[in-house]
Amino acid sequence: MSKGVLVDMTKCFGCGACTVACKLWNEKKYDEVNKPTLGDAAQLVDINWTVVSKHDVTDGSGHEAWRFAKKQCLHCVDPACASSCLVGALRKTEQGPVIYHPDLCVGCRYCMVACPFNIPKYEWDKSFPKVSKCQMCYTRVAAGEQPACIAVCPNQVMTFGDRDELVKEAHKRIEGNKQLYVNHVFGETEVGGTAWLYLSDQPFDKLGFKTAVPQESLPAFTWQILSKLPAILVGWTAILSGLYFFNKRRNAIAEGKQDSTGGPQS
Questions:
Q1: By the number of CB atoms within 10 A of the CB, which of 10, 42, 245, 263 ranks highest?
Q2: For position 263, what pLDDT does the model report?
Q3: For 169-215, how does the pLDDT look when each residue is reduced to its tens digit (9 = 90+)?
């Protein structure tokens, strides 16, 4: 069964251990001055695959309070990013993660446009940029382990398991404590469903979540339109294939490898 994660934001106190684990496991750089992973200015960027943002809210008793929201790629059940990529650089795995294959990427950035949650980022400051996003620690998941961010959480904010069972668990928690939780599991039906599911005691839009998204799968809707444009698709496939081979050869030359003629690069 496809795996997922249930995030209970009522338990998060913003320690940031998950962001540290993500950096260490994925060997990402730190830049807390310009690209913070914690607080009011936390942002998902090329080097930040997971962040914990802080939000000022009013709690159930009417008092001012803080709420913390862990954010990363939601790993859609039917991802628009993967369906928009004509070279297969983004793919949904059977285990649940949506993973990125940089060697196939042609840099078209259609995935960035297609994603309803604005997740994929681009390495703008690199000579040979790639798309960057959370991989849901897919090698760990494939080995039967939970993602690194979950393994270090000190307050059991996140639960890893089969997505269908997590949906049931989420509704069980809501039913058992209606005074605490808002009656909605974010990610259950948004854009056809996501692997990451959320519970909250605050409206999700107040915590920075993109709630104005369709409930149906975006690729299913997209291909209804694209299927009527076969000539355009063929043309774009040819163009993107050409870009792929051009970028692959350019990268090989930059890395000092042999070019297509077999001659060494000086």
A1: 42
A2: 45
A3: 999 999 999 999 999 999 999 999 999 999 999 999 999 999 999 99
Rounded alpha-carbon distances, angstroms, from residue 57 to 15, 54, 62, 186, 206: 18, 10, 9, 18, 8
The H or E element that residue 36 is part of is: none
pLDDT (0 to 100) of residue 61: 82
Residue 256: is it exposed, middle or buried by C-beta count within 10 angstroms (0-12/13-18/19+)? exposed
Count other Cβ atoms within 10 Å, centred on residue 201. Answer: 18
Domain ranges of the chain: 3-80+115-219, 228-266
Q: Are 207 and 58 in contact (CB under 8 A)?
A: no
How many CB atoms within 10 Å of residue 219?
21
Q: In the chain, how long is the greatest CA-to-CA distance? A: 73
Q: Looking at the chain, how many residues does it have?
A: 266
Tokens of 105: 């990427």
Q: Tell me how far apart the alpha carbons of residues 233 and 260 are, in angstroms, rounded to a whole number.
A: 28
* CATH class of the domain whose range is 3-80+115-219: alpha beta
Total-model pTM: 0.83
Average pLDDT, the chain: 88
Terminal-residue alpha carbon distance, the chain: 51
CA dihedral angle for residue 41, residue 42, residue 48, residue 50, rounded to 10 degrees: -170
One-character DSSP codes across 10-26 = TS-----HHHHHHHHHH
Name the strands in the sheet holding 196-199, side by side, starting at the edge strand that comes first in the sequence.
158-162, 3-8, 196-199
Q: Report how far residue 41's alpha carbon sits from residue 88's, in angstroms, rounded to the nearest whole number.
A: 33
